[in-house]
Structure formats: structure tokens, C-alpha cells
Amino acid sequence: MSPRTAKDRKNPRLPPEVTRLLYVRNLPFSITSEDMYDLFGRYGAIRQIRIGCDKGTKGTAFVVYEDIYDAKRAVDHLSGFNVANRYLIVQYYQHAKMSKKLDLKKEEEEITKLQEKYGVSTKDK
């Protein structure tokens, strides 16, 4: 368990969206696991880091902290942080929001396949 600041102890209640799991976007493609541990490890003990490596996930990562207050400090300090001329977007991972986006993308792909199959176009002629 990491030491908490006086500010953390005064206000132990955190907003409901605050979690130990962070979703990081806009990472440089060349970033390594070691770089991620160095950068995010400044704010507390890390349980796991997963960096996206395929076409759809490159430039993103998940960071899991041991302590929720460490995750909050990382979001507070690293959102907008410049790494290799890229400004990081660090958010709390929200499973419900992320799964809705994936479902919507899947539905759009199905509609496109059906349009191609039946020769339907949405473009004005």
C-alpha cells in the first residue's frame, strides 16, 4: 500500500467513475513497457500494463494500479502530459461505455455488409 497524502485522507470519498484501471490513448507507437512502467510508476505501485499492438489498438494501453488513490494521482498528473510530442489522454476505464462503443461498431459493420450484399447504397446519386 502506498503512502497517501494529507489531501487524500481529508477527502476519502472518490467519485464513482474513479477506478484502479486506466485507459491511455495517444501513446507514441514506439513506447515500450519499460517506458510505461517508468512513467506511470511515479504515482504508485502498478499491478499490470497492457500495451496495444495490433492495428486497432496501437497507441493505447491499459494500466492497473494496486491502489485507487495512485490511479487518481496518475490521471490528475498525466492527462495532457507530453510524451514524444504526443499529448496523453488518460481516463478511468468505464466498461459499460467501452462495450457500448464496441457494440455500435459491430452493428455498423453488419449494416455495411448487408448493404453490400443487397446492393443498397446510402450515398445520394
From TrEMBL:
Pfam families in alphabetical order: RRM_1
Keyword tRNA processing in annotation? no
Could you state a single Gene Ontology molecular function term? Answer: RNA binding
Q: Does the keyword Nucleotide-binding apply?
A: no
List residues of the RRM domain: 20-95
Q: Could you tell me where this protein is found in the cell?
A: Nucleus
Q: What is this protein called?
A: RNA-binding domain superfamily
InterPro entries noted in UniProt: RNA_proc/Spliceosome_comp, RRM_dom, SF3B6_RRM
PROSITE patterns per record:
RRM
User: What start-end ranges are recorded for coiled-coil regions in this protein?
Assistant: 97-124
